[in-house]
Specification:
By secondary structure, the protein is of the alpha/beta class. The chain has a single domain, classed as TIM Barrel. It is built from eleven helices and eight strands. An eight-stranded parallel barrel has the order 1-2-3-4-5-6-7-8, surrounded by ten helices. α2 crosses α11, α5 runs parallel beside α6 and α7 runs parallel beside α8. The chain is globular. About 50% of the residues are buried. It binds zinc ion. The site of zinc ion has 6 residues, from β3. Zinc ion binds next to β3.
Length: about 290
């Protein structure tokens, strides 16, 4: 299928207490693993691209990175017959506009650094551009930290305030709201818990589907509870990178003479595909395409 705006599938999941997964891709092989797993599970799926993925793929030029990912994402989506969305995560204004022009079907503007009023104004304006193009719009209120390996203080996280979340959604018209419940980006172990009471309070104030960032660092019980309480889009990145890399590491460790990249990248792709299938079943998206 051509790339889809996946909002109807997320809304359906939201109404029925299951989740749609968004998987980060940094390479072509990772994109392939995501769509092949979705096909095998008959699940709708989101390929997600981060700002750092754009820098990597574009060799430091984010717009070139967007061009690459848009082109590969279209081929990946066309290679399967389940709905696939291509989402740009945590982007600035220029990247959001470029992504919409290049055919991404979902975007997230990250105005964390901006004063509230400016964040609202830009999010609203970008949402209008996105909607005119048939693209799904996500934004975040509160902050899921991106520590980049640096230590963080779990008590210093700016968790989402329910009333501010309601005001933000009303003022911006976003389709999906990312909220901070205690998760952190980039953790390798599922050691964190979510503030599920806060989630219930947010749910009472906000009717749009909610998004969990940083799920790789959260214990599975809390993710499962959170999905039932309204976290209809679950972002998964580090967990996939772990699976891909452990596959590659095993092959290279077993054969010090190996030089053909296909022989280890292919194993990484297969290892990641298994992980994506497991997560699609876990969030409840399998069979929902
Ligand atoms: Zn995120």
């Amino acid at each position: 299928m051509t790339l889809q705006n996946i909002l109807p599938w997320i809304q359906e999941a939201h109404q029925n207490g299951y989740g749609i997964a968004a998987f980060n891709a940094n390479t072509m092989e990772q994109m392939q693993a995501i769509v092949l797993a979705a096909q095998a599970e008959n699940a709708p799926v989101i390929i997600q691209v981060s700002h750092r993925a754009l820098q990597y793929v574009g060799s430091g030029n984010e717009i070139r990175g967007l061009q690459y990912m848009a082109a590969i994402g279209k081929v990946a989506a066309n290679s399967v017959d389940v709905p696939v969305s291509l989402h740009l995560d945590h982007a600035n204004e220029q990247e959001v506009l470029q992504a919409i022009a290049l055919g991404f079907t979902s975007v997230m503007f990250d105005g964390d650094d901006l004063p509230y009023a400016e964040n609202v104004a830009i999010t609203k304006r970008l949402g209008e551009v996105a909607h005119a193009a048939g693209v799904c719009m996500e934004a975040e209120i509160g902050e899921v930290p991106k520590p980049d390996g640096a230590p963080f203080d779990p008590n210093a996280i700016n968790l989402t305030d329910p009333e501010e979340a309601a005001a933000f959604v009303a003022a911006t018209g976003v389709d999906l709201l990312a909220i901070a419940l205690g998760s952190v980006h980039g953790l390798k172990d599922k050691s964190l818990s979510l503030d599920l009471d806060r989630l219930q309070a947010i749910r009472q104030h906000v009717s749009v589907p909610l998004v969990l960032h940083g799920s790789s660092g959260v214990n599975n019980d809390d993710i499962a509870q959170g999905i039932k309480l309204g976290l209809a889009k679950v972002n998964i990145a580090t967990q996939l990178n772990k699976a891909f890399t452990s596959g590659v590491r095993q092959v290279l460790a077993a054969d010090g003479e190996l030089v053909d990249p296909r022989k280890y990248l292919g194993v990484g792709r297969d290892a990641q595909m298994a992980e994506v299938r497991e997560r699609l079943r876990f969030v409840g998206a399998s069979g929902k395409a």
